[in-house]
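User: Some background: our group keeps a shared notebook of sequences we're curious about, and every so often someone picks one and asks for a predicted structure to add to the entry. Today it's my turn. The entry only has the sequence so far, pasted here. Could you supply the structure so I can complete it?
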Amino acid sequence: MRPDMTDPNMLDRDAIPPGPLDGILVIDLTRVLAGPYCTLVMAELGARVIKVERPGYGDDARGVGPFIAGKSAYFMSLNRGKESIVLDLGAADDRPIFEKLLARGDVLVENYRPGVLAKHGYGWDALHTRFPKLVLASISGFGQTGPLAQRPAFDMVVQAMGGVMSLTGWPGGPPTRVGTSIGDITAGLFGAIGVLAALQERARTGLGRHVDVAMLDSQVAILENAIARFAATGQVPGPLGSRHPSIAPFAAFRARDKHLVIAAGHDGMFRKLCEVLGAPELVADPRFVGVQERVANAEAVGAEIEKRLTARDAADWLARLAEAGVPCGPIHDVAGVLADPQVRARHMIVSIDDPVAGRLEMPGNPIKLDGREDKTTRPPAPALDADRARILAELER
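Assistant: Of course. Here's the predicted structure to add to the notebook entry:
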């Protein structure tokens, strides 16, 4: 049955270009950010995503601002191109519908606390017995095992417990949260990677797998240099502002009018930087002759660089540095990001046309695939229960 395109809330799947996950059906029991971000990644790669939402409220993100014409811009940006059906997993009339979806689905993604899905009769053992090909992805604060498994978590909690906040900000400053919700987003990304791995395995074995991703685990996984430094030296890393712990100069520096970033990561780059600055003597300075020396004297090399940078505006320096091949860039605010011609050229800002809220811009898909059209528009996010009639009709066929 084709959708009734006179309904402005009805998703036209024919308008979505096929992708590598075309034909994969994802049943989405998630809400707010980590889980919806996981299923958004899969939707961007061509999967069909059906959000199963609770009666009355739906995804909690529908109530999170900012709002446009009463609709959450936050929800719309995370759930574009998905479909919505309202089901109560505890209701006798709705359970058969949900189970028909599971029978047809390839992936079920949920971000309840561990054990909640099992209370409804849909724990991994029960699902795997009845729907052996189904991949289950569980995204939670602390994972399905361990002493903290039953605790709730938000992004701030796992940024703190995972060590990320201890590395963010300036020395001596207060604890600082990273400006985006990387606790949720990294869990969503690792969740999508886990699902893709499980689907690849299923292609060989015919069996699904339970993917268990914790937000805390995901923060530990991205500590990279910090854990390496602690393991090598026994010293606990702390915040360094905009500096890199193992490379210098590699930071934000003040020009005449504003800051810019310079990342002269090795000796050749430092030499080019000094040439642009008109300070070739810095290359021979014993404090700056190698990477280790420059890191040990990061404040001194930064002071020498800024002494020269203050002679010109940032834009002037950026042009000169780029011409010389020195990695550099402006420090954009969000408006600057949206206006950046490179960002636009890569279609990293896309838009939806919502029937109520109108046109809304949001981040695009960073995964570019040869031969697949990367449009600058996306289908809107669904109204609550908008796709119910069509989904039910499909399940009866």
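Suggested note for the entry: The radius of gyration is 25 Å. The mean pLDDT is 94.
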